[in-house]
Amino acid sequence: MILGIESSCDDSSVALMDKNSLELVYYEKISQENEHSKFGGVVPELAARLHTTDIPNLISNTKPYFDKIKAISVSNEPGLSVSLLSGVSAAKSLSLALNLPLIGINHLIGHIYSLFLHSNLALPLGVLLVSGGHTMILSIDKNAQISLLANTSDDSFGESFDKVAKMLGFGYPGGKIIEDLAKTGDENKFNFTIPLKNTNRLEYSFSGLKNQLREQIEKLKSSNLLSQEIPNLAASFQKTAILHIIDRLNLVFQTHKFNKFGIVGGASANQILRQHLLNLCTKFDCELLMSEIEFCSDNAAMIARAGVDRYKNKAFDDLDMQIYPRSNLQAKFLDRL
């Protein structure tokens, strides 16, 4: 079995995966959302303290399988430095204690593996990665070489939802809050402009859309109408943000032929985004791959799954393995497979 450890941000998670059958023998995740929500976002020092307690407790649950573990895989890039250190320190200690190989995993690549938790990696593949820290379109060829087709120039898709939720007076994380509010709102009530519409720039930008929303909030506050318009604001913002995602993807699909296209990352759990992407893939005769909702956000199952392939390729790391809070995914992808 391969043991996976994930602690790149505010989720502590440990998993055990059979390297032959890909059966998830053990999986557990402890979310820190309640602890961070009162501060309106992730507090790194608090996250590190919670990881220091939770990760050893989760690892202790795998003791009955210690004699079957063949390697320890752990997220070592990118993420919050203090959070990454918590997981990597635990992995190094366990590697040393059990005399097992250590495998560092780029957790963005882990997200791609969330599409293949129970199957072999299928390449070539196009990917939309949307999370609290990243929004990018990737093309991965049959040799696992990655090309970055589009990135965000400011906020990520998930981050923009968090900030909008805060503007509307709600807590963290904002993705599910905005999605739930939008269910009862009129998405056509406010005519927000789709960023970069009618341009050929292959990038994402959510700062202008957020500013449109902020200005509308101020107008509604001045007329004491904000409280009754909140669902409509959420729905209109969500609609425009998703149309921005699809609009840029439509440009990519016109110049790149994908037989398979996956959506990964915490924000990929948004059901409206999934439906729009399904429609786009149908239009371009492309198979859409989606993670199970449970494994969209950061989790150790995807880290263990990535570790399985790296173990088979004997791609091990030394005990002096470093963390990389900011990593060059494009340069590291082939090596990290």
Number of strands: 11
Instruction: Give the helix/strand class.
Output: alpha/beta
Q: Radius of gyration, rounded?
A: 20 Å
Give the helices and strands as they follow along the chain. Answer: EEEHHEHEHEEEHHEHHEHEHH
Low-confidence stretches: 331-336
**Mean model confidence by pLDDT:** 93
Largest sheet: 6 strands, mixed
Number of helices: 11
Query: Level of helix content?
Result: 40-55%
Backbone shape: globular
Oligomeric form: single chain
Strand content: 15-25%
Strand order of the largest sheet: 9-8-7-6-10-11
Distance between the termini: 18 Å
Fold blueprint:
Layout: E1 2-6, E2 11-17, E3 24-31, H1 33-37, H2 44-60, E4 71-77, H3 81-98, E5 102-106, H4 107-113, E6 125-130, E7 135-140, E8 146-152, H5 157-167, H6 175-182, E9 203-204, H7 207-222, H8 226-255, E10 260-264, H9 271-283, E11 287-290, H10 300-312, H11 329-336
Helix pairs in contact: 2-3, 4-10, 5-7, 5-8, 6-8, 7-8, 8-9
What can be said about this structure in brief?
The chain has 337 residues and is α/β, with parallel strands linked by helices.
